Amino acid sequence: MTTHQIINENSWGINVDLIPEFWVEQEKLAIIQDFMFSGINVMLTGDPGTGKTELTKRLARAHGLAFHRVNVGAIRTPRDWFGHWEFIGGQTIFVQSEFVDAIQRPGIVALDEFNRVTPDIHNSIYTILDHNREVFIEETKEHISVHPRCIFIATENRGRSHTGTFMEDTAVDDRFESLRLELPPVELMAGLLEEVYGAKEEHALLLSRITHKLNGLFHEESLSRPTGFRPAISATALLKRGQPLKTALKYTFVNRFSPEGGVDSEQTTVLQVIQAYLK
Ligand SMILES: Nc1ncnc2c1ncn2[C@@H]1O[C@H](COP(=O)(O)OP(=O)(O)OP(=O)(O)O)[C@@H](O)[C@H]1O
Ligand SMILES: [Mg+2]
Fold it and tell me: What residue's CA is closest to ligand 1, atom 14?
C-alpha cells in the first residue's frame, strides 16, 4: 500500500485540463474528474501499461489530494480490508488497516487491480461503495462513515490475456462508472518517450510505432498478449545505456512473446513487424 499526505484542498472540484507528462484523452479526463467530484466511483479499464495505476496517482497530485492505494490483489479474505488480528503482549488485538483511516479522510483511494480477487472479497465493501458509504466493522464494533470528499478510483484489466482476473459481478460493476484508457496516439507517445524518458527522436517514433502495431495485432487476435507502454520504456532505458537498437528491441518487445512454434511462433511475428519498421 502507498499513501501520501494532503498538499492542499483548495483545488477541490476544479477540473484540470491536462496532467503533466501524461496523456489522457481530454474528454475522458474531464469526465473522470466530473465523476470524482460528484461522489461517483470511477473504474479505469484498459490493457496493461495504459497508465491506469499511474493516472490515479497523478490525479491526486494534480489536485493536491491525499492518496492511498490498495493493492486489491493482495487481499486474501473479505475481512483483510479492515485490518488483521495480531498477538501482542499475551493478547490478540485487532489492528485496523490504513484503508479504514483513508476512507475517513478527504482524498483519493485507489482500488488497484480490483478484479484480481474473487468477488466474495468485494462483498464486505459493497456498502462503502454504494450511496450508504458506510460500513460496520465487526471486529471493533464500530460504524465507519466514508468522508464526503473521499474519492474511489478502481483499476482493472479486462480481456482475454488476463488469467488470474475474475469476472466482475454486476453488483460491483453497477457501483462504478467505467472509462477505458488507451495508448496515446503514435506521435504523442513518441513525444512522451522523448520528453519524459529521454529517448532520441528517431528511436521514440520507432518504439511508439512498434508498440501500436503489436497492440493492434493483439486486438486482431494475431498475438496472445497486449503491448502497452512498458516495453518501450524498457527499450529506451537500454538504448540510453548504449545498447544497439536491435538488442534493445530483442530484450524488450521480442522476449515477451513465445518462441514456441519456430517460424510460426509469436516471436517470429514480432521480429517481422520490427524488421518492417527498421527498413
Ligand atoms: N498515457 C500515458 N502517458 C504517459 N505515461 C504513460 C501512459 N500510459 C502508461 N504510461 C507509463 O507506462 C508505465 C505503466 O503504467 P501503469 O503502471 O499505470 O499501467 P497500468 O495500466 O496500471 O498497467 P497494469 O494493467 O499492468 O497494471 C508507467 O511508467 C506510466 O507512466
Ligand atoms: Mg496497474
Answer: 49
Q: How do the domains of the chain map onto residue ranges? A: 2-180, 186-278
Which architecture does CATH list for 2-180? 3-Layer(aba) Sandwich (3.40)
With residues binned 3-state (H G I as helix, E B as strand, rest as coil), the percentages for the chain, rounded to 5, are: 40, 20, 40
Give whole-number Cα distances, 236 to 132, 144, 203, 226, in Å: 47, 47, 8, 19
pLDDT digits (tens, 9 = 90+) for 132-183: 999 999 999 999 999 999 999 999 987 555 556 666 667 777 899 999 999 9
Phi (first) and psi of residue 65, to 5 degrees: -105, 150
> Does ligand 1 come within 6 angstroms of the Cβ of 226?
no
C-alpha cell read off for 152 = 474511489
Query: Which grid coordinates are listed for 25?
Result: 484523452
Closest approach atom of ligand 1 to CA 54: 18
